[in-house]
Amino acid sequence: xxxxxxxxxxxxxxxxxxxxxxxxxxxxxxxxxxxxxxxxxxxxxxxxxxxxxxxxxxxxxxxxxxxxxxxxxxxxxxxxxxxxxxxxxxxxxxxxxxxxxxxxxxxxxxxxxxxxxxxxxxxxxxxxxxxxxxxxxxxxxxxxxxxxxxxxxxxxxxxxxxxxxxxxxxxxxxxxxxxxxxxxxxxxxxxxxxxxxxxxxxxxxxxxxxxxxxxxxxxxxxxxxxxxxxxxxxxxxxxxxxxxxxxxxxxxxxxxxxxxxxxxxxxxxxxxxxxxxxxxxxxxxxxxxxxxxxxxx
Length: 297
Fold this sequence. Notes:
By secondary structure, this protein is of the alpha+beta class.
């Protein structure tokens, strides 16, 4: 399922659509792409049946005072555990037990759309994107187009705007024609081969404002509870998030196997994860600022 060829990058001039040099990764097998859903399926299939209990959303967690914690579920029931790992994403219900920090808006919004069966139905756009990711950039506006498996291409239009940009723009995200008109105005002057993604995409548009946790995001160690992935270090989506989450899980699992107690394992894990995530979050913030500067230049 992995696609080494997906590492390919193409950068185009937004006005002429001519290729520009890109000093990034080329072909290779050091960082292959894989669709998120396929990766999740592989991981789920490796678990014994019943390991995951679906439909048990956690609403919060409270300490029982002896290093154990009580998980409160949305059906009114509760479960006690000697280790709680908050791996529940950007808006974690576990994080408040460790940290008062909440995600803040970066000032950058992505509008997502895409193409299905692109090679057959939209062959010219598919050839332009190539095997991996296409990027076109002008000032603080960017178009990303990323090839997924089975002929799907995911497209993002990125720009700086207030979080409530839809109000001043008099646009409802569910009104496809209104969003299309807004994007055509915002990306006015771009080459028609790039604007093809605005005019001829499949389906509607999805509003994705970018939120991040403070960098660094740290907390005082507490026995029996920790965080991993976006719950611990939500950062701009520049290709690190899922990889860091898997590395977090690997390090925590290794510590639980090798350390003499759960508390020692959590301490060992946090001593690796916290400085690593702080560095990655700072680097990701700098990358976002480089890609989409606060003001047009």
